[in-house]
Task: structure prediction
Amino acid sequence: MAHQPSSPDVASLWQETAVPRVAYPALARDARHDVAIIGGGYTGLVTARALARRGLSPIVLDANRIGWGASGRNGGVVSGKFRLSLGDIASAYGVETARRMHGLAQQAVEHVGELIAAYDIPGAAFSARGSLRCAHNPRALARLRAEAEWLGAMLGDPSYRILSAGDVAAETGSRGFVGGMLNVHGGIIHPLNYARGIAAGIVRDGIALHEDTPVLRMRREGAGVCLETPGGVVRAGQVVLASNAWSDLTPATRAIQRRVIPFRSAMIATEPLQGAAAGLLSGGRSYTETRRMMRWFRKAGDRLIYGGRGAFGRDDKPSAFAALQRAMVRQFPELSGVRVTHRWSGLVAMTLDSLPHVGRFDDRVVYAAGYNGTGVALASYIGTHVAALVAGDTPDLGPLTGAPWRPIPLYGVREPAVRAVAGWYQFLDAIGR
Result:
């Protein structure tokens, strides 16, 4: 049935090139389920699938539409890594924990392919060609070389390879890098088609899914939880909060809101490339640079997507997109006369320790959030562990589940604090540190 969208979709390349959208009805009656999931992104959808496979009855409630948030706006980079490096994880938590996290990251990438195969999502256009981190100066290249050596020696993973400046230039088309590190795990994907494909699959499995259904209030009731929406009340034994960076949309997810720092990530996409520009990024993988205020780039068909962090506030700003375009042309002079056809952004949920968090707030409320910009693979795979937690298991995800997730101290001043840190990072990048 037709219904009025809660918020408009962003005018992204993914929206323009996505498979036709299937509209799922807003909740229009009271319902009772074993588990209510707030948020229809990758985590919420996969959690519902995993719960149903355990014989439980889940319902997914999204305040907007499938793919409206980060699951449909991100850059489509499938990465087998965390924002915190494995070496830093080993220093903080021990080598065995780093080994466990390394395995978790690789399993997350493999799980993406398994989901695509299980639900037959050819529109996801998953290309598992890995990623290339491009060093912007010799100091950064030395760090990449040390990281590759550590991964081989300590974790037994020889798949990371250091490339010369010539190799990086031959593949990327840019001579602005002094070398790089190739990681064969991971790849690129059409993120909105991937999200829509999972949603269609779980609905075919018989799972209840409702769009345009914000949870206005949530309260304990008897042995369960009562969720009030504009169209009906959902009663469930347990609730999963899977709203991530968009947790300020309703009061029901305020507990997540106070534990993450939303950071805007902006992206631009070019018109179809021709001539010499068409040969850029010939490896067909994802590419990132090593500056602290990271830029990343990839191809989507015959277009180039260029993205980066550092935009602030809830609304898009022309200045942020203009800065991205200038950076893109500096990196790839061949694009100086190429038209930018799409400009969009989304929110990344950052955490104080740079790691996702999975756990319980109490006996009825489970959470998973804080992917720190590496969420396509992790957010999907963690859904299987969220379901295990709901079902009474005790999954061991190292520091992701190792301690209670505390609210951010002095939450009210988080935005100026983030601005100050970002400004410091930009200064360090400018002086080559």
